[in-house]
Design brief:
With 139 residues, the chain is an alpha+beta fold. It has two domains: 3-64, no CATH class; 69-128, no CATH class. Helix content is 27%, strand content 23%. It has helices spanning 3-15, 29-36, 48-64; strands at 69-70, 89-96, 99-108, 111-114, 117-118, 123-128. It has a six-stranded antiparallel β-sheet with strand order 1-6-2-3-4-5, with no helix packed on it. Strand 2 (89-96) and strand 3 (99-108) form a beta hairpin. Helix 1 crosses helix 3. It is globular and about 50 Å long.
């Protein structure tokens, strides 16, 4: 589910809280039925609305923090880079006493690594590296 679709679902949810028509004309009829059905919790884990909420929350968090994810909230998934056959690199925000800086470190075994040195205690936030450059063909 993309952010755009998640936003659309949440807008429909809000619009149809008061929907009483048995045949709701909206695109997401199941959501409207879930909302009207008192025995159904539309925000139960795994439901479409729950997933939409999670996606929108994550997108807003990223925007709020300029894409940085605090290590206190979540650590990245441990992934082996297919090209290097090593742990995947991430941008990290570091704090050394009163100094702050940004570097690229690898994450694996629940630790942050810089050339074999464990830098975990200095990492305060992380973000995935940007996508690689893609040339645009003039046509």
């Amino acid at each position: 589910m993309e952010i755009k679709e998640a936003l659309e679902i949440l807008k429909e949810q809000v619009k149809h809280y008061s929907c009483t028509a048995s045949d709701c004309p909206c695109k997401y009829q199941k959501i409207c039925r879930d909302i009207r059905d008192e025995s159904c919790d539309p925000v139960r884990e795994g439901s479409t609305v729950y997933k939409a909420n999670q996606i929108v929350i994550e997108a807003l968090e990223k925007k709020k923090n300029n894409g940085w994810i605090p290590v206190s909230k979540r650590l990245p998934e441990e992934i082996i880079d297919k090209l290097t056959r090593d742990f995947t690199e991430y941008n990290v925000s570091l704090k050394f006493d009163d100094k702050k800086c940004v570097r690229t470190y690898k994450f694996g075994n629940e630790r942050w690594w810089n050339n074999g040195a464990d830098m975990t205690k200095y990492v305060v936030a992380w973000q995935p590296l940007p996508e690689t450059y893609k040339e645009v063909e003039n046509g």
